[in-house]
UniProtKB/TrEMBL annotation:
Origin species: Oryza meridionalis
Family per similarity comment: Belongs to the peptidase A1 family.
InterPro entries according to UniProt: Aspartic_peptidase_A1, Aspartic_peptidase_AS, PEPTIDASE_A1, Peptidase_aspartic_dom_sf, Phytepsin, SapB_1, SapB_2, Saposin-like
One example GO MF annotation: aspartic-type endopeptidase activity
Function: Involved in the breakdown of propeptides of storage proteins in protein-storage vacuoles.
Localization terms from the record: Vacuole
Name listed for the protein in its UniProt record: Peptidase A1 domain-containing protein
Length: 527
């Protein structure tokens, strides 16, 4: 047994130098302890905004359907899911339908802060909330309204503003005030006080307004976006923000937006980054789309895509969404135009493909489209590509031309799989029964998820797969539960399209980084 060492002698006298050394040591220890006690976000220089998740309910579905119909009538589009190729940057914003949105966060405007629930939307660039001066839109009275007279930091602007969405237009005027996002206070932020909100659909909306996180290029009134101001005012250490949606939570804590970087606990592995190909939206180039590991052929030579937190579903070209519908057993709508094309022109289209005719010229050769040098357009309608003014001219392919171009894509894909001509024509005829609902919502059997295929997207040379439980949305509970496909159709022709909009269905499965400093978007599997 060892004898204990005697305690060190207590030294009462200490030199000034020794005291200085100990003081420095104590300060260092205190700093380390403080760092350990601080929340991770403060220690890392990150600003976190908690997101609430609310389930899609029947009211939201009805509102989405009604607002989609409103948009269809207003924009003169087929089911509000086709865009006529205009080159105006706001075109895609005009198709946005927020009624099925599930993820919301809270901000404050003014001093003291007036609280608003907003959608943090990477697919638009303006901040707007209802105004106390909104007297004649019933929807305004169901939401928080900004009262400029109660803010000591309010600055009058007064410039008129209007934004056209698929859900209708909001109109009002610009004002300036401080905007509180988490612990950050963005000073002198320009935003829209909405004095008009569309129809009755916004009455059931679960949010007050929208905070856009897109680029200034698509900002109405050229207003500087909130995110730009955060960077300019030095409020974030790194010009990066990231989204994590908690898809495991049915309701309540729905995830986080992290401004100034990303949280490693939100993702697994490394991010795959792709450069922003066109500023405005967070747009990038995407490769082939696969159903159950097999190519659809439509994007094999490349498509554009947008990472859009303000879109709840995943939108893509009707030709591919129809193939997905067929494979997952989704209900669709019968297209007589499609059936007519198959019965009257199917064999001729097949013969032209087998003769190695350029696919983009086939529909013009059979007389259903005209060819403008790049792609087929409806006969008698000038292509937007030739529009020297660069403005939208209302180009919209006719239904027979659309059906023909889809048939060409489907037949190409089947020929690549060495299917016989009879099998191909029968399969294309079946697809004509599976076209997506004009309002973009297709029902599926909740009991069939196990037999549904994975749907994969090629980004940066890597396959990003979605499993059925990730792309099927459940509405309601128990015996009353209904399942809807997370895929919706939207056709945007060249030069901007074909285009995919990767909304919350995709961003829920893959943690998404928006790197403003390096102009790139990154994806990694969500934790």
């Amino acid at each position: 047994m060892h004898a204990r060492s005697p305690p060190p002698p207590v030294v009462l006298g200490t030199s000034i130098a020794t005291m200085g050394t100990r003081s420095v040591a104590l300060v260092l220890v205190a700093a380390v302890l403080l760092q350990a006690l601080l929340p991770a976000s403060a220690a890392e220089g990150l600003v976190r905004i908690a997101l609430k998740k609310r389930p899609i309910d029947e009211n939201s579905r009805v509102a989405a359907r009604l607002s989609g119909e409103e948009g269809a009538r207003r924009l003169g589009l087929r089911g509000a899911n086709s865009l006529g190729g205009g080159s105006g940057e706001g075109d895609i914003v005009a198709l946005k339908n927020y009624m099925n949105a599930q993820y919301f966060g809270e901000i404050g405007i003014g001093t003291p802060p007036q609280k608003f629930t907003v959608i943090f939307d990477t697919g638009s660039s303006n901040l707007w909330v209802p105004s106390a001066k909104c007297y004649f839109s019933i929807a305004c009275f169901f939401h928080s309204r900004y009262k400029s007279g109660q803010s000591s930091t309010y600055q009058k602007n007064g410039k008129p503003a209007a934004i056209q969405y698929g859900t209708g237009s909001i109109a009002g005027f610009f004002s300036e005030d401080s905007v509180t996002v988490g612990d950050l206070v963005v000073k002198d932020q320009e935003f829209i006080e909405a004095t008009k909100e569309p129809g009755l659909t916004f009455m059931v909306a679960k949010f007050d307004g929208i905070l856009g996180l897109g680029f200034q290029e698509i900002s109405v009134g050229d207003a500087v976006p909130v995110w730009y101001k955060m960077v300019e005012q030095g409020l974030v250490s790194d010009p990066v923000f990231s989204f994590w949606f908690n898809r495991h939570s049915d309701e309540g804590e729905g995830g986080e937006i992290v401004f100034g970087g990303m949280d490693p606990s939100h993702y697994k592995g490394n991010h795959t980054y792709v450069p922003v190909s066109q500023k405005g939206y967070w747009q990038f180039e995407m490769g082939d789309v696969l159903i159950g590991g097999k190519t659809t052929g439509f994007c094999a030579s490349g498509c554009s895509a947008i990472a859009d937190s303000g879109t709840s579903l995943l939108a893509g070209p009707t030709a591919i969404i129809t193939e997905i519908n067929e494979k997952i057993g989704a209900t669709g709508v019968v297209s007589q135009e499609c059936k007519t094309v198959v019965s009257q022109y199917g064999q001729q289209i097949l013969d032209l493909l087998l003769a190695e005719t350029q696919p983009s010229k086939i529909c013009s050769q059979v007389g259903l489209c005209t060819f403008d040098g790049k792609h087929g357009v409806s006969a008698g309608i000038k292509s937007v590509v030739d529009d020297e003014a660069g403005e939208s001219n209302g180009l919209q392919s006719g239904p027979m031309c659309n059906a023909c171009e889809m048939a060409v894509v489907w037949m190409q894909n089947q020929l690549a799989q060495n299917k016989t001509q009879d099998l191909i024509l029968n399969y294309i005829n079946q697809l004509c029964d599976k076209l997506p609902s004009p309002m973009g919502e297709s029902s599926v059997d909740c009991g069939s998820l196990a037999s549904m295929p994975e749907i994969s997207f090629t980004i940066g040379g890597k396959k990003f797969a979605l499993k059925p439980e990730q792309y099927i949305l459940k509405v309601g509970e128990g015996a009353a539960a209904q399942c809807i496909s997370g895929f919706t159709a939207m056709d945007i022709p060249p030069p901007r399209g074909p285009l995919w909009i990767l909304g919350d269905v995709f961003m829920g499965a893959y943690h998404t980084v928006f790197d403003y400093g390096k102009m790139r978007v990154g994806f990694a599997k969500s934790a």
